[in-house]
UniProtKB/TrEMBL annotation:
Keywords associated with the record: Signal, Transport
InterPro entries per UniProt: Bact_solute-bind_prot3, SBP_3_CS, Solute-binding_3/MltF_N
PROSITE patterns (UniProt xref): SBP_BACTERIAL_3
Superkingdom of this protein's organism: Bacteria
Phylogenetic lineage: Bacteria, Pseudomonadati, Pseudomonadota, Alphaproteobacteria, Hyphomicrobiales
Residues annotated as signal peptide: 1-18
Protein name: Amino acid ABC transporter substrate-binding protein
Keyword Signal included in the entry's annotation: yes
């Protein structure tokens, strides 16, 4: 409640326009709620191979899933203390705003509308995406600038179609299109060689490639025609919870930058580098300000590895559909992944 008083004998003029005060629907902190419940409730996409998938036994795995497990490790020191819920694009933010879930970790691009209209906020960027092209080896292209006189599968009337047309217009290249409205139809047409290339977000293209008989015979070209940023989303009215999620992402990125991995973390405890000592809780850090124990950052890395380990686990050369890091490389390697200093 906001209280005020008049001092002295002169009344102050009332403001010309009174602004309504909107109360937040949740007064108990998310961290307190999660701790009382005993686990984090994390929403992910129902199926996007590489990002989120469920085995026949009901086991979840994927890049976005590991982000959720990292959050559970930060709060509880145990990555298994998380419940996953598949949510469609239409309902992902409604369940978050009403308190049914604690965080959304899925391919929902960060936009101004999403960050301002639904009572939610993005805690950071976990994956940079953008429109790309996928081609079979028979096309013989290693760059989108080499594509010419080919047929491209694209969603009709979509932003992808517009961006593709602008790209080829700028480069004065001739091409044909095979248009479908449904993504499944596009994937089927590409799979049956009705077109020479498929265009869409790189994250979707890698999911399609995993379903092909010979994934290694297809390449996602490095150029990006658009920009999208994915990341975990939380309610707007809990700064502490937002900071916990944001700092968890920062820990994953910083650990890779400092060379701290899930494999060498124990030996790194004796490191003399102050940044590493703070990261692993050997020296005082920001943990107390977040309401977490001093070793929470160490627990996150031990549970899921650093950012590079997570990326390699789901998109690396040993997977069925490797995806070049590109924008998702560290800033020191020409990418966009960058984290504030942990101090």
């Amino acid at each position: 409640m906001l209280c005020g008083a008049l001092l002295g004998g002169t009344a102050l003029p009332a403001p010309a326009v009174a602004q309504p005060v909107v109360s937040a629907p949740f007064t108990i902190s998310t961290l307190e709620t999660v701790r009382t419940r005993g686990y984090v409730i994390c929403a992910a996409t129902g199926l996007l191979p590489g990002f989120a998938q469920v085995s026949p036994e009901g086991l979840w795995s994927g890049f976005d899933i590991d982000i959720c497990r990292a959050i559970a490790a930060a709060v509880f020191g145990d990555p298994s203390k998380v419940e996953f819920r598949p949510l469609s694009g239409q309902s992902r933010f409604a369940h978050l705003a009403t308190g049914d879930i604690d965080v959304v970790s899925r391919n929902a691009a960060w936009t101004m509308a999403r960050d301002t209209q639904y009572g939610v906020t993005y805690a950071g960027v976990s994956f940079y995406d953008g429109q790309a092209f996928m081609v079979p080896d028979r096309v013989g292209a290693v760059s989108a600038y080499e594509l010419e006189d080919i047929t491209i599968c694209v969603a009709g009337g979509s932003e992808s179609e517009t961006m593709m047309e602008e790209f080829f217009f700028r480069n004065q290249v001739s091409f044909d299109t095979l248009v479908y409205e449904d993504r499944e139809d596009l994937a089927l047409a590409y799979r049956s060689s009705q077109c020479d290339a498929l265009t869409g977000s790189a994250s979707w293209l890698q999911a399609v490639r995993r379903t092909l008989p010979e994934p290694s015979a297809h390449s996602i070209l490095p150029e990006r025609l658009s920009k999208d940023a994915f990341g975990p989303v939380v309610r707007s009215n809990d700064a502490q919870w937002r900071d916990i999620i944001a700092m968890t992402l920062n820990v994953l990125i910083t650990a890779e930058e400092l060379g701290v991995t899930s494999a060498n973390i124990e030996s790194m405890l004796s490191a003399r580098t102050m940044a590493i000592r703070r990261l692993l809780g050997v020296e005082p850090s920001v943990a107390g300000r977040l309401g977490l124990r001093e070793t929470w950052m160490r627990d996150v890395i031990a549970a899921v590895g650093n950012y590079g380990e997570i990326y390699a686990r789901h998109f690396g050369s040993n997977t069925s559909s490797a995806l070049l890091r590109g924008q998702n490389a560290l800033w020191t390697n020409g990418g966009l992944m960058y984290a504030p200093t942990l101090r």
